[in-house]
Structure formats: structure tokens, C-alpha cells
């Protein structure tokens, strides 16, 4: 039996997919999607940086580090703009490594945002222990299940797995 390890981007796409229709394209769905994409890009970036890269790697032998940072920053900016449009300019500054973020504030913000939107950061970035978020995500699920439509959908999904 072969075990395939899910990449950070595959996990992000599974846990926080891009909305499939205009009707499902809610603010929260986009925030969840862009925050997950940003965390995935940063996870891959950090994996590549810590892989003791050759000074002149062969073309195509690794991810483009510049692309990963641009993808992460763009996704963070999109999530921030959707989260709090009035405060977005200042928060984007605070979360951008080349500007105001000096100590990984972007990572803290992404983790907090994902948990608030029901996504476990530990399933996207292996630097985090998924179990560390169980209590917060349990509280999120309990709150969501108060909505009768969400509860019915959750129960139908659970029944279909049995």
C-alpha cells in the first residue's frame, strides 16, 4: 500500500476550496480560501528554504520562491480586504514582511483567521500540530450547528458517510 502525502496546496484546496458558484461565493468563503492559499504558499516557501538549496539549482527543480512569496502576499491582501475593508490598508502594511511585519505577524493572523473560519492550520502547514486547534475548532462547529440549515446539512453529510 502506497501512502501519498498531501501537499500544503492540496490541503488548502480541499479544506477551503474556491467557491464553486456565485451563490456560494460568500465573504467568509473567500476569506477562508485566500487565507488557506496564503498559508499553503508560506508553508511551501519555508519547506524550500529549509531544504538546504543549492546555490544554482537546475531550472524547474524547485518551486519559484519569488512566486510563492508574491502568491502569499496577494492572498493575504485579498483576505484582509474582505475581513475589514476600513482597516485593510494599515493591516496589509502590518502583515507584509517587507514593510511592517517583522516577527511573523502574517502567520499569526492567518492561523487566527483560519481557525475563526473553521479550518485547521495544522492540516495545511506541518509546522503546526493539528491537535492544538481542536478546542477552538470544536467551539466553531458548535456555534455553526446552532443554524438549522447548517445542522441539517451536517447531519445529511454525516449520514451519507455511514
Task: Describe the protein's architecture and organization.
The protein has 162 residues and is mostly helical. Helix content is 59%, strand content 0%. It contains seven helices and no strands. The longest helix is centred in the N-terminal third of the chain and has 23 residues. It is globular. It starts with 7 loop residues before the first helix and ends with a helix. The mean pLDDT is 86.
Largest sheet: none
> What is the N-to-C succession of helices and strands?
HHHHHHH
What percent of residues adopt helix (DSSP H or I)?
55-70%
Anisotropy-based shape:
globular
Brief characterization of the structure:
The protein has 162 residues and is mainly alpha-helical. It has helices spanning 8-15, 27-49, 65-83, 88-95, 105-116, 134-144, 148-161.
Helices and strands in order:
Elements: H1 8-15, H2 27-49, H3 65-83, H4 88-95, H5 105-116, H6 134-144, H7 148-161
Descriptive keywords:
7 helices; 162 residues
Amino acid at each position: 500500500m502506497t501512502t501519498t502525502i498531501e501537499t500544503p496546496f492540496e490541503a488548502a484546496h480541499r479544506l477551503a476550496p474556491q467557491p464553486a458558484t456565485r451563490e456560494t461565493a460568500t465573504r467568509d468563503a473567500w476569506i477562508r480560501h485566500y487565507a488557506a492559499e496564503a498559508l499553503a504558499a508560506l508553508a511551501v516557501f519555508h519547506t524550500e528554504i529549509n531544504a538546504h538549496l543549492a546555490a544554482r539549482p537546475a531550472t524547474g527543480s524547485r518551486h519559484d520562491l519569488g512566486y510563492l512569496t508574491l502568491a502569499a502576499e496577494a492572498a493575504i491582501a485579498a483576505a484582509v480586504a474582505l475581513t475589514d475593508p476600513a482597516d485593510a490598508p494599515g493591516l496589509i502594511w502590518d502583515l507584509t514582511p517587507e514593510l511592517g511585519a517583522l516577527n511573523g505577524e502574517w502567520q499569526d493572523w492567518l492561523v487566527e483567521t483560519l481557525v475563526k473560519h473553521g479550518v485547521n492550520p495544522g492540516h495545511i502547514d506541518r509546522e503546526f500540530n493539528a491537535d492544538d486547534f481542536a478546542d477552538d475548532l470544536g467551539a466553531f462547529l458548535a456555534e455553526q450547528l446552532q443554524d438549522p440549515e447548517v445542522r441539517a446539512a451536517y447531519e445529511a453529510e454525516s449520514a451519507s458517510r455511514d
